[in-house]
Every structure is written in structure tokens, then in C-alpha cells.
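Consider the subject:
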Amino acid sequence: MEVISYQLFIVVTIVATHFLKRSWVIWACALWTLETLALLAYTPLITVQLIVIWGTWFLLDKNQSQKERLNELEGYLSESPQDIKELALSVEEPKKEILQGQNHKDFLIKSIQQVEQSIVILSGWITNYVVNQYFIQELESALKRGVKIFIGYGWQNSMGKHEEFDSSIQAINQIEILVLKYPDQLFVGKFANHEKILIKDDDYVVYGSNNWLSNSKFKNSERSIVINSPELANKEYRRAVDLINSNLIVMA
């Protein structure tokens, strides 16, 4: 009984430290580990106590990571319709994963290579930093497989204008050439868009800070959350496609 009470005391001190100052938790666990190794001589008890110490740390850390991920996702969804927001937040944790930095670029290309029916890309900007010859080739390869592709862009400044540079004009020109070749499969809309979303088939939706079609060097920290949910993918697909189709680029 005394042993159990002592293990509970260890748990309580670690949990209390977590709520008082989370950055100190690892030090509390380290001190308990040193105390365990210094004062105990019975190997099974040492093992149990170390499991209690670091098991408590693991559970607290996992719970904190889930809370941070939830807060992050809520930020990405701040301007989304309420029904979509509620659905995205309700998806179980095992069906969510994090993308960081350069992984975004690889994930985008992989999505285009593996898509079977449709892919939607919302990005504030389009530039040839991403929309280069290789990207266009992968896009056309998907179009040749019969895939429907929807692209929305057009971040606007305080004057209500979407500024274009040589890098963006070149990229958009390349996409427009594909639109002429595949008018029933490739749809491009220009509107006041600040969302950064990727939707592949009925497989997943990706929300985050990364501008999918303009960011390739990742000088700033970029993070996104992949949510594997057919229901969410279907809802977001319909919403995004309506936006894009309502603002299609008029070809000369």
C-alpha cells in the first residue's frame, strides 16, 4: 500500500508541475528518475517507478499536443462555415496528421500523382516557384487520366487588388494553356481568396498556412493539418468548387 501511495504522489507532483509551469515537467521527471536510481535497489520496483514517471510525462505530453493541434485547427477554420468547422473538429485524432515545411511541396506533388477523380487547390497566390515545368507536366498527366482539377486564387490587398508579378503572370499563363486544352476538366477561379486548402478525392482535406501554389522555399515556418474524412472532403469540395465556378477566369 505504501508503494502505491508513493507512486500516486509522484504522479500528482508531475501533473501539478505541468499545470503550474509546463516547461518544468521534463525536469521534474528527470529529478524523480535520479531519485529512483539513487535510492532504490530493488530492480522490479525501479522499473515500475520509472514507468510511472515517464508514462505520466508521455500522457501529459500527448494530451497537450492534441490540445495544441485542436487550437491550431480552430485558427485555420476561423472563417469556415459552422457546419464544416464542427465536422472538422469532430474527426478523431488518429485521422489527423501534421505537415511541416518542405513536406508540403512533396505532399502536393504526391496528391496530384495519386488523385483518381478530383483535386481542389486553394492558394492565395500562384507563382512559377511552384507552378514550373515539372508541376505543369504532373498536372497534365492527371488531366490525361480524366481527373478534374479546380484551382482558386486571388489574395487581395487593402485596396482590393490582387498584385501580379512576372513570376505569377508566367505561372498563370502556363495554367491557362492547359485550360484551353482541357476546358471540361481544368477550372481556375480568381477571387479574394486567403484560404490555403488541398482536397483530394473523398480522401482528405488539408488546412494550414502554406500557399500551395506559390511557396517553395519555406523560409518561414509553415504547418498544415491533414484530415482524413470522406464526409469533410465532400463538403469542402462542394463549397470550394462553387466558389471557383462562380469566379472562373474568362479566356480571351
The chain has a mean pLDDT of 88.
